[in-house]
């Protein structure tokens, strides 16, 4: 399948979900997750009009960045080892996986700019998933107050891989409620307007629940 054909189908689903939720289409950005695919395929996504690319490994990111000169906006979406921060920090625009203080300290130490970060939340409670538990998030945000190289632009979560829509929806809803609490506080260092949630199988539900960035791999560029 051409990326353009996949995108046409996904775009229709996004518009439908926006309509259901009475949201404006411009509130939702698509991140093409290129972690499974070649640089050529990532280029095809850019040619189809995608501006945001996501990778979950430093190696994959650097490899593609060398070749893709038409600069996309880069999102680091994978769990990030503290010692790998220095290899990616000046090469990405967003980090979606801030989930611990030691990682924040390393970002603070290594970044030459205010790094846009999402705090990752484990809304499903699955052991296999990274992220803070929902009741830890507010405290963690407070702890980030002194970090002038970190800006918390939003929250990120992954729903479980299940066909039970209620479970998935509940995860996204939980994330939104925590986001709303933080947003209301009007913190300079944590405006927290964004919700990074929704993947190939559940992006429509995520948009209905308020996603502002959906991270789509398989359904858009393939696996
Ligand atoms: C792989 C990945 C995605 C994309 O998953 P698909 O199901 O292929 O769309 C999204 N977010 C994260 C964090 C991922 O690791």
Structural description of this entry:
The chain has a single domain (3-221), classed as TIM Barrel, CATH 3.20.20.10. It is built from nine helices and eight strands. It has helices at residues 3-20, 39-47, 58-67, 85-88, 101-110, 137-143, 165-184, 203-208, 218-221; strands at 29-33, 52-55, 73-76, 94-98, 115-120, 150-156, 194-196, 213-216. It has an eight-stranded parallel beta sheet with strand order 7-6-5-4-3-2-1-8. Strand 6, helix 7 (165-184) and strand 7 (194-196) form a beta-alpha-beta unit. The model has no long low-confidence stretch (mean pLDDT 97). Residues 33, 35, 56, 77-78, 158, 199-200, 215-219 line the site of pyridoxal-5'-phosphate. Pyridoxal-5'-phosphate (PLP) binds at residues 33, 35, 56, 77-78, 158, 199-200, 215-219.
Chart the SSEs and their pairings.
Elements: H1 3-20, E1 29-33, H2 39-47, E2 52-55, H3 58-67, E3 73-76, H4 85-88, E4 94-98, H5 101-110, E5 115-120, H6 137-143, E6 150-156, H7 165-184, E7 194-196, H8 203-208, E8 213-216, H9 218-221
Parallel strand pairs: 1-2, 1-8, 2-3, 3-4, 4-5, 5-6, 6-7
The structure holds pyridoxal-5'-phosphate.
Summarize this entry quickly:
This protein has 9 helices and 8 strands. The protein is α/β, with parallel strands linked by helices.
- Please write the string of helix (H) and strand (E) elements: HEHEHEHEHEHEHEHEH
Q: How many H/I helices?
A: 9
Q: How does the major sheet shape up?
A: 8 strands, parallel
In CATH, what is the homologous superfamily?
Answer: Alanine racemase
CATH class: Alpha Beta
Mind telling me which CATH architecture this is?
A: Alpha-Beta Barrel
